[in-house]
Amino acid sequence: MSNRHNFTYFMKEGVRGIFTHGFMSFASVSVITTCLVLTGTVVLLMLTLTGTITDLGSSGDIRAYVDETLSDEESEALENTLRAIPNVSGVDYIDRDRGLADLREDLGEDSALLDGLEYDNPLRNCYRIWVVSIDDYAGTVEAVENTGGIAEVYASIDAMTQLQNLRNILGYASLVFVIMLGMVSIFLISNTIKLATFDRREEIGIMKMIGATDGFIRAPFFIESLILSLIAAALAFGLQWLIGNAILDSGLASLSFMKIADFRDYMLPYAGAFFGTAVLIGVCGSLLSIRKFLRV
């Protein structure tokens, strides 16, 4: 019964403390929310950039030209062999006739230059090959080159290597930026909590002098910080949802080469990170700040 009464008292005092020290409560929630949203938005933008680079790399196709000594049937039979190569996501067989038709379409008004070639088509059967990841692009090209029946391979190895390096640089840069932003966030949040605790030093001192135990004093502050942290996390998650939708609805989404990171795909990780971080920093920061005022 005593424990239940104590819990009711702690909850009542925790909620009362939020409204009694309204400005500092508002400041704590605002700082935590702002820091979480800033960090979350940076991560979302970095996911967009790295996803775009990866998507561009995956669209970097490989052209494999079939040996002219092979018949059309033998050329088509190579498709299964090429599909079985690791890191290959798709294969498109382009025979001579289709190749000539595609070339006419590319030339447009100048397609008349190709008149007569349909009777003696000089083009070779070929395959257009897409890769899953640019990380092993060079290895995939080598595997295609070593496939029997393939006479020549054209690939953008240098361009894919540069894209891979750019993606890695952005990944490291985003990690460093998030760590720096996280350190600044922790500094701002801890100082805000310290100010909130300092504002209540007399209340803590009086409770200590009349014989209240450290645990009894800490409990209302713990609940108050927990409530404020959960409010901040919920606000940050809601704002991040709005920002994520705004990015999707922006002009960036209409750009064919941009792969906008959809916040809905990362909702659970974001929720876990926001609520976990807010509670950890808010509650731990508050209890650690109270500790020095308990020495009366």
Description:
With 296 residues, the protein is α+β, with helices and mostly antiparallel strands. Helix content is 68%, strand content 8%. The chain has helices at residues 2-20, 22-58, 72-83, 96-107, 137-145, 157-198, 201-209, 214-249, 267-291, and strands at 62-66, 88-94, 126-131, 150-154. Helix 2 runs antiparallel to helix 6 (157-198), helix 2 packs across helix 8 (214-249) and helix 6 runs parallel beside helix 9. The longest helix has 42 residues, at 157-198. It starts with a helix and ends in a 5-residue tail after the last helix.
Task: Extract low-pLDDT stretches.
Answer: none
Order of helices and strands: HHEHEHEHEHHHH
Question: Strand fraction band?
Answer: 5-15%
Number of contiguous helices: 9
Which structural class best describes the helix and strand composition? Answer: alpha+beta
Biggest sheet strand order reads 2-3-1-4
- Form type: rod-shaped
If you average the pLDDT, what whole number results?
Answer: 78
| Number of distinct beta strands | 4
From the structure above, extract its key features.
296 residues; 4 strands; alpha+beta; 9 helices
Write a concise synopsis of the structure shown.
Helix content is 68%, strand content 8%.
